[in-house]
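Hi P.,

Sorry for the delay on this. The queue was packed all week, but I finally got your sequence through. Input first:
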Amino acid sequence: MSATRILGPLLALLLLLGIGYGIFVSAGRKAREAGERLAASAVVEVRGMIGSEKEGFFSDPRVIDALAKHGLKVQTEKTGSREISQRDTAGYDFGFPAGSPAAIALKKKANASQTFTPFFTPMAIASWRALLPALEAEGLVRQDSGTLYVVDMKKLMDMINRGVRWRDLKNNAAYATGKSVLVNSTDIRKSNSAAMYLSLASYLANDNNVVGDPADADRILPPLSALFLRQGLQESSSAGPFEDYTTMGMGKAPLVMIYESQFLEYQSRRAKPNPDMVVLYPQPTLFTKHTLVPFTEGGRKLGEVLSTDPELQKLAAEYGYRTSDPTHFRDFLKSKGLEAPETIVDVIDPPSFEILERMISQIEAKYH
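Then the structure:
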């Protein structure tokens, strides 16, 4: 057999193989491109209003990637939680305020059929270790199993209303100033954390009962108004006073009403937790539920994913939030060398939306 007779069929075979490979590669590339186009078309962009305390969570690349696995791309606009319930919902897919009262108002306004509460956090007071001797000497603060509790919130409210000054406190060498004892908060007209402060103060003023009657609300309100009116300039969202606390120190912010999650997130982001900062847990306190109210199907899907996806629940715990699975929160504390009570028992409910709005509106009128 001649070489030509052998090479001819071989070259033809190689040519056919080459053509087949080219078709295979081309088909594979087209399939990938089609798959990418399909995936891109499957991504739903949702836009929503959120409380400022959740901005870091939604901007985390890990959260963005986890949401993308569910075909979600989220755009957020931060604003005060109470403001969210008052804004026009047109053009948004969801609202995600802090606190049940704001969420209830928003649900009613948007005529939403359901809501989602992926995580929650107790209200707390950020303070300084140097102030503990004075606070303990006054019988306000006690330590129990590593946790600092404000055991006499009623006495603290009374001191504020009487105009007691820091220099009047016993054992107060660290902060003997002429400033009045106050708990700094956000603007009661705009923010949930201030509304939670009012809820707690109203409970104490109403003989340790949730205010449920308009007459009781009107009766106890005059001294409660001073808790906010005497503060001066107030921020519209919870990030503001907490930023003052972390950047300006004890001189500006000796006592600040915060979400526990803010304190834990801040300390967890440092190379070492700041030992001068302490978090005080009021007895009683309130849980702030971070409740997502969907306006569209995309918003509903986001609420469901945030509430059920284990990866997102774990990431929420890394921002100091408590979830339905306490192991996420426990693991977060252990990994960062932080301490917080695993269970908080002395918890009250805020007043109804109508009663709370009645009190806020009356305080708001006094600003003018």
